[in-house]
Structures are given as structure tokens and as C-alpha cells.
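A.,

Following up on our hallway conversation. C-alpha cells first:
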């Protein structure tokens, strides 16, 4: 009888200790989960940045009030434009560059930009391996949309996996915010907009 009571007490103590340990671990995890996430780093705007499958170097940002690099705006619209030099770091032609840049702190009617080669206004071209091309990211905006004089552009990178866990094939996966580049934004009159010709 005494042995049975003693084993019950030991069981209660063990269960109580386990519960306390579980509560302690859960509390620690909750505390760490509540900590603010680290902000992505500020990247220098005047150097080339390796962003997974792309090497990118932002060149300039401006607001266009007219057709720019072949992108036609609707009446009453203007556009935020980011020009960047981009190099395809892979072994095949690719145009998976739509999500590389995203302006922060501004409301976009459509987060997906129109993208064109600045040299000939070709829209969404495939970029050949190892060749650097200047690309224009064009986000149409309402004509009265407020655009700050400086703007941060987030850069998204991907990770190359020789063998994906799900499909077992090589590719670029797990997009993540690599960092942010801040550029001045110039308001360009319609008569001076770069690439406004046909």
C-alpha cells in the first residue's frame, strides 16, 4: 500500500515537472516569436548586387507623365519608373524578373510592373545568359498619387537548389527579401520623359 502511494506521488511529481517544463518552453517560444523581425539591410545603390539568378544595379528612379519605353499610360495616369542594369546569372535565357524589385511605402494599383528594355522598348524580353541589359520597371499610378522624393525599393532574391525536395529537379526557389535600395525620385515633365518616343 505504501509502495503504491509512493509511486503515485512520484508520478504526480514527474507529470508536474513535465508540465512546468512544457510551459516554460512554450513561454520562451512565445517571447521569441514576439520579438520584431530584423529589417532587411540597406544595400548600396551604386554597386552591382547578386540577387540569386540576377545581378542587379539600380540606376535611377523617376515619375513619368507620358509614354515611357513603349509603355502607354491611360489618360490621367502617371508612372513610377525604376531603371536598373540586369544580368542573367543562369545558363539559359530567362524573364523571371517581375518580382525582383518592389517599391516600399507607396500604394500601387497593380504590384506587377510593366518591364521593357530601355534600348529598344521591347516589352518583357528574355535576357540571355551573361548579358547585361538596362531594364525599365514601370508601375502606372493615378495622376494625383503622392510619390515621395526618395523611395526604397525592396530586392527579392531566390536560392538555387540542385535538387528540389518536392520534385527532385534543379531550380530557383524560396524567394526572400535580400535588402532595400533607396533612390531619389525625380519628377520628369512629359516633354522630357526618357524613352517617350516610339
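Then the amino acids I'd put at each of the 198 positions:
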Amino acid at each position: 500500500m505504501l509502495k503504491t502511494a509512493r509511486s503515485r506521488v512520484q508520478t504526480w511529481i514527474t507529470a508536474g515537472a513535465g508540465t512546468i517544463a512544457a510551459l516554460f518552453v512554450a513561454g520562451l517560444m512565445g517571447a521569441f516569436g514576439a520579438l520584431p523581425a530584423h529589417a532587411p539591410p540597406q544595400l548600396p545603390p551604386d554597386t552591382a548586387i547578386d540577387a540569386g539568378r540576377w545581378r542587379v544595379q539600380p540606376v535611377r528612379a523617376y515619375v513619368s507623365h507620358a509614354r515611357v519605353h513603349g509603355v502607354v499610360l491611360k489618360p490621367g495616369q502617371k508612372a513610377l519608373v525604376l531603371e536598373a542594369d540586369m544580368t542573367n546569372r543562369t545558363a539559359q535565357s530567362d524573364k523571371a524578373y517581375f518580382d525582383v524589385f518592389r517599391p516600399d511605402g507607396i500604394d500601387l494599383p497593380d504590384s506587377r510592373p510593366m518591364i521593357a528594355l530601355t534600348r529598344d522598348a521591347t516589352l518583357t524580353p528574355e535576357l540571355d545568359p551573361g548579358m547585361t541589359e538596362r531594364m525599365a520597371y514601370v508601375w502606372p499610378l493615378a495622376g494625383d498619387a503622392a510619390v515621395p522624393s526618395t523611395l526604397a525599393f525592396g530586392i527579392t532574391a531566390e536560392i538555387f537548389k540542385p535538387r528540389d525536395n518536392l520534385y527532385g529537379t534543379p531550380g530557383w526557389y524560396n524567394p526572400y527579401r535580400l535588402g532595400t535600395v533607396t533612390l531619389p525620385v525625380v519628377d520628369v515633365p512629359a516633354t522630357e520623359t526618357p524613352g517617350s518616343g516610339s
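The two ends are 98 Å apart (CA to CA). Curious whether your intuition agrees with the design.

B.
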